[in-house]
Every structure is written in C-alpha cells, then in structure tokens.
Amino acid sequence: MASTPVSVHKSEEEWRAILTPEQFHILREKGTEPKGTGHYDKFYEEGIYNCAGCGTPLYKSTTKFNSGCGWPAFFEGLPGTINRSPDPDGRRTEITCVACGGHLGHVFKGEGHLVPTDERHCVNSVSIKFVPAPASTPAPQCGSCSCSARKGN
Ligand SMILES: [Zn+2]
After folding, report:
1. pLDDT string in tens for the chain (153-residue length)
2. pLDDT value at residue 116
3. How many other C-beta atoms can be found within 10 angstroms of the C-beta atom of residue 33?
4. What separation in Å is there between the alpha carbon of 118 and the centre of ligand 1?
5. H or E segment and range at residue 14
6. Is 67 helix (H, G, I), strand (E, B) or coil?
7. CA of 70 to the centre of ligand 1 (A)
8. CATH number, domain at 119?
9. Where is each MsrB domain found (predicted)?
10. In the chain, what's the furthest Cα-to-Cα distance?
11. Which of 68, 73, 130, 146 has a CA between 20 and 30 Å from the CA of residue 57?
C-alpha cells in the first residue's frame, strides 16, 4: 500500500511547539473554528489540502463544494487518509487525520447536497493547509517565430 500515510506520533508538548495555539486547540483538542470565519470557507483554487498538523494530503480541490454551512465542505477525502469515529453524543461522526489523529471536523451524510457521495465533510480551515496544483508548463511557443529567443544573432 504505497499510499498509506506514515503515522505521526508526537507528545502534547511537541504539538504545542509546532502548531499555532488555534491549530492546537482544533487539531489536538477537537475545537471548532467560528462559523464563516475560516480561510478556506469560500476558497476554490485548484490544488490539494494537506493536514495542517502532519502534512498528509487529505482532500483534492475537485471534491470541495459550496455547502453554505460556513465551513469548507468536501464530498470525499483521499482514500485511506481519514478516520471516522462516532462522537460521544452519538449524533455526529468525527473525522480525523489517519496519520496524526488530528481533528478535522465532522462528516454528515444524506443532507441532499448535489454531490456524488451525498456526504459533507465539514472541515475546519485551521486543520488543513492548501497547496496549489503545480502550474502547467506552457508549451514552447517559438518554433519558427521571430521572438526574443532568436535576437542577438
Ligand atoms: Zn495529520
């Protein structure tokens, strides 16, 4: 399984050292950022969202959608990267990063969003870090033109 994320185990102290207080609160203490304030709530660039704790790629921008809920929403995580476990209150399902156990948010099913999985991963912006897709290199344009590549001859 080449795609299995490497497990990351750190003590609370180590996490405090590398995370901001806000990241620590949400990732390690299962906090929730205030609705509608997240950096990625209305963010639709092309790329990958990594775990803010350990850097494991978790979501593709192509699975992000506008749920209107006030947090970033994805209909699918990358295979094998996200753990699900029932909340103690029995009503919600928590999602965490498989590699480091960082709290991402919750997953909701059957809300009727027009997405392939009918699921909404409601993720804290603080828990993820966007990495832009590599810019596609434009094909060389100067085969027979008289562009600057030929000047100074
Ligand atoms: Zn992680």
Report:
1. 446 778 999 999 999 999 999 999 999 999 999 999 999 999 999 999 999 999 999 999 999 999 999 999 999 999 999 999 999 888 999 999 999 999 999 999 999 999 999 999 999 999 999 999 887 666 666 555 555 554 444
2. 96
3. 21
4. 25
5. helix 12-18
6. coil
7. 22
8. 2.170.150.20
9. 12-133
10. 76
11. 68
Place of tokens 């775990």: 51
- 104 and 58 Cβ atoms separated by less than 8 Å: yes
* Total structural domains within the chain: 1
> Counting Cβ atoms within 10 Å, is residue 151 exposed (0-12), middle (13-18) or buried (19+)?
exposed
Question: What are the structure tokens assigned to 148, written together?
Answer: 């600057």
Instruction: Note the pLDDT of residue 141.
Output: 63
Q: Which residues are catalytic?
A: 122
How many angstroms does the Cα of residue 98 sit away from the middle of ligand 1? 7
Q: Where in the sequence is the domain holding 98, given as residue range(s)?
A: 37-132
The answer to whether residue 148 is domain-embedded is: no
Domain annotation covers residue 5: no
Bridge partners, residue 105, by sequence? 95, 123
